[in-house]
Amino acid sequence: MQVLRDVLEKAQRDGVGVGHFNIGDFVILRAVFASAQDLKVPVLVGVSEGERKFLGTRQIAALVKSLRDEFDFPIFLNADHTHSLASAIEAAKAGFDSIVFDLSALPFEQNIRQTKEAIEALKGINPAILVEGEIGDIGTGSEIHDAAPDLSKGLTSPEEAKQYVDATGVDILAPAVGNMHGMLASMVQGTTKKHLDIARIAQIKSATGVFMTLHGGSGTEDEDFRKAIAAGINVVHINTELRVAWRRGLERGLANHPNEVVPYKILPDAFEAIKEVATSRLKLFNSAK
Ligand SMILES: [Zn+2]
User: Fold this and answer.
1) Which of 98, 100, 121, 173 has the fewest CB atoms within 10 Å distance of its CB?
2) Which helix (DSSP H) or strand (DSSP E) does residue 275 occupy?
3) How many CA atoms lie within 13 A of 261 on its CB side?
4) Strand runs labelled E in 50-164
5) How far apart are CA 114 and CA 131, in angstroms?
6) Rounded distance from Cα 236 to ligand 1 centre (Å)
7) Spatial contact of 191 and 221, defined as CB atoms under 8 Å apart
8) Residue 222: which H helix or E strand, with range?
9) Residue 230: exposed, middle, or buried by beta-carbon count in 10 A (0-12, 13-18, 19+)?
10) Ligand 1 centroid, distance to 42 Cα (angstroms)
């Protein structure tokens, strides 16, 4: 069975992106997995600290491992936005394939020092684990926001990216390149889209040479995704779009079965809605130019 590093190296060679989807419940996990299976593409699923608290860190690791083993399929598990070493260690011990160690809210030097320490501790638990570090400001909360935050001052520069990667030794870098967590209501309606700083992505890639993740991908223009991947993005995170699909699908399931109480008769509507979004995103990310 491949490890995540092999999958990212192959994606880089092929000029495609690996889709990363947050899984807030079992229905989302099944729907994302079904999409990846249909398309025969590797997939990353992630759980934030909040999602881990709700689902159980070891329990979600066991579920993902069972899919990987039973179907001999390249599905990998990421500990998304982890803010403390203790919770990073918990995820590493549970068998996660990668960890986003996110101290981007701290001063730069402190982020570097503590990320370096975390990498040593985490690789001591599992040498194959990939650690992703983050610099810059991409906002918080994969939710629907009333107003766009001003993230222009928090964009990552190629110089600080190089300094950060050299000093920490992170495997993967999450830069701020015009991306933003969450979506505006107009993006959910489809009347506005996010746009990315493609030149900045290319400059950061050539300065650092590391794998790069695009967080907050929901609501981004399709063409920007293609260009971002061509410029050096290896992993693309989609969360809010799936959450919107989950809610709409759930509401449809409840409306279609007003007197039903059997979960497996209501939830297929949510499954289908999520699968449709995941499939369209995976198709886009995996279509090399
Ligand atoms: Zn993120």
Assistant:
1) 121
2) helix 268-285
3) 0
4) 75-82, 98-101, 130-134, 144-145
5) 13
6) 10
7) no
8) helix 222-231
9) middle
10) 19
Please report, to the nearest 10 degrees, the dihedral formed by the alpha carbons of residues 151, 152, 155, 158 taken in order: 170
Q: Which structure tokens are listed for 285? A: 């990310």
Q: Which of 80, 97, 197, 224 is catalytic?
A: 80
| Residue 122 amino acid letter | L
Q: What is the pLDDT of residue 288?
A: 67
Check if the beta carbon of residue 75 is closer than 8 Å to that of residue 7.
no
Kindly report the pTM of this predicted structure.
0.96
14 is catalytic: no
pLDDT given at position 142 = 87
Distance 81 CA to ligand 1 centre (A): 6
Q: Tell me the three state secondary structure of residue 74.
A: coil
Tell me how far the alpha carbon of residue 256 lies from the centroid of ligand 1, in angstroms: 34
CA–CA separation, 101 vs 79, rounded Å?
8
pLDDT for the residue numbered 1 = 79
Interstrand relation of 43-47 and 18-22 (parallel, antiparallel or unpaired): parallel
38 three-state secondary structure: helix
CA of 38 relative to ligand 1 center, distance in Å: 26
Distance (Å, rounded) from C-alpha 229 to C-alpha 243?
Answer: 24
Q: What is the pLDDT of residue 289?
A: 58
Coil/strand/helix, residue 212: strand
What gap in Å lies between CA 229 and CA 213, rounded to an integer? 10
Q: In the chain, which residues have pLDDT < 70? A: 288-289
Would you give the DSSP letter of residue 24? S
Do the beta carbons of residue 219 and residue 183 sit within 8 Å? yes
The distance between the two most distant Cα atoms of the chain, rounded to a whole number of Å, is 60
Distance CA 115, CA 104 (A): 10
Q: Are strands 130-134 and 172-174 parallel, antiparallel or unpaired?
A: parallel
Whether the Cβ atoms of residue 97 and residue 65 lie closer than 8 Å to each other: no
